Amino acid sequence: MIKTAIVWFKTDLRITDNETLVKALEKSECIIPIYCVDESHFKETKYGFKKTGSFRAQFLLEALEDLKNSLEKLGSTLVILKGKPETEIPKIVKEFKVQKVYAKKEIAFEEKKTEQKVQEELFKLKCEFEAISTSTLYHAEDLPFSIKTIPDVFTDFRKKTEKESKIRPCIAQPTQIKSPVLPQTKIPTITELGLELTPLDSRSVLQFKGGEKEALNRLNHFFYETKALGTYKETRNGLVGADYSSKFSPWLALGCISARTIYFEVKKYETLFGSNSSTYWLIFELMWRDYFRFMFKKHQTKFFISSGIKENKKMNTNTNATLIADWINGNTSSDFINANMIELKLTGFMSNRGRQNVASYFCNELNLDWRIGTAYFEQQLIDYDVSSNWGNWAYIAGVGNDPRGHRFFNIEKQANEYDKKMEYRNLWLK
């Protein structure tokens, strides 16, 4: 039994179904829950956009506040650090004579690099480090293939996984947490992060608020208050309103709720109200999310290069600043693209249907470097998730997991099909 351990929270900001937290509690006499506001997350990327924009930053701060409250109810608190994790975490290790740090396992290049730097500094202090997978529906160890042999076509992955793998049960939240006397630290304000608070536009599909409590409220609303889950497959391509889709993605991205929690709640819903193609489809979407994470484990840095996982495929490297600005600001020749881009700019959110169309337009009609569009999404999206964002953009650009190789959307046809009465365009273009 270890005397003192750190639980380093990252994008797993919850106390329910959090294996990292529970494992640390089982193996230690007391724990120190920490979150490090990584300064690199608030800098500019090489594409000229902020790595984290104001919508996602505000959502993060709300999620941290909620996690802090939850931990305090269990007898602990959340220690907020600010700076470089590899500098700040070792300070706490030294101060409290910490013997082990537990954290969520990372899969993307930058995040893994940070994890490695922290590990190297901890090694110097004779402090152990253990990373635990907490982000996926299916555990990587339970898949019917190794990471290296996962098929590059989603359908092949899905069929075999559904048939041969099981989803592990959720882990109950702890009832008590023992911690040493911890310093009272403050969650920074958005201005302290170098950002301005952007008031959410009243036309937003939802008044998104970060935190596990809000995630569970949203789940309850979508499943039980409205029973919207029962018609999800028919409505998921909607553009206007709160309930055409689940809108779980911002909470999933920060780990305010786990994919497994959603899965088992779907199963509970099915026992109460019956299963149909809609209840299955939500699980299907969670599998897509898993798939992109596993693809990142398999292909690593390839998703960040122009040719993606298609090796030497020649892609556009056009960086025309005027075309990019027109796309961002909704000044293109397509009213459907403009409406979607204005929604993203003013709310930090856009429907799945919208995302596919604006990405296709960016890549295929403006012929711009797809990575620039991806980087803008990284800044803007309240639900930014590294593997889903870069994986989906690569897919649309024809350098990812699309077996057809090139996905070209007829924007006018899409607008007529999904916004026949121009309700969406009239909402955002007035």
Characterize the structure shown.
- It comes from Flavobacterium nakdongensis.
- InterPro entries: Cry_DASH (IPR014133), Crypto/Photolyase_FAD-like_sf (IPR036134), Crypto/Photolyase_N_sf (IPR036155), Cryptochr/Photolyase_FAD-bd (IPR005101), Cryptochrome/DNA_photolyase_1 (IPR002081), DNA_photolyase_N (IPR006050), Rossmann-like_a/b/a_fold (IPR014729).
- Pfam families: DNA_photolyase, FAD_binding_7.
- There is one protein chain.
- The protein is α/β, with parallel strands linked by helices.
- The chain has 3 domains: 133 residues, Rossmann fold, CATH 3.40.50; 119 residues, Serine Threonine Protein Phosphatase 5, Tetratricopeptide repeat (Alpha Horseshoe); 124 residues, DNA Cyclobutane Dipyrimidine Photolyase, subunit A, domain 3, CATH 1.10.579.10.
- It has 17 helices and 5 strands.
- A 5-stranded parallel beta sheet has the order 3-2-1-4-5, sandwiched between helices.
- The longest helix has 23 residues.
- The radius of gyration is 22 Å and the shape is globular.
- The N and C termini lie far apart (63 Å).
The average pLDDT value, as a whole number, equals 96
Order of helices and strands: EHEHEHEHEHHHHHHHHHHHHH
Structural class: alpha/beta
Share of β-strand residues: 5-15%
What is the name of the CATH architecture of the largest domain?
3-Layer(aba) Sandwich
Largest sheet: 5 strands, parallel
CATH names the topology of the largest domain as Rossmann fold
Number of strands: 5
The number of helical segments is: 17
* Low-confidence sequence ranges: none
Percentage of residues assigned to helices: 40-55%
Alpha-carbon Rg, integer? 22 Å
CATH superfamily of the largest domain: HUPs
Assembly annotation: single chain
The rounded distance between the terminal residues' Cα atoms is: 63 Å
What would you call the shape?
Answer: globular
How are strands sequenced across the largest beta sheet?
Answer: 3-2-1-4-5
Count of discrete structural domains = 3
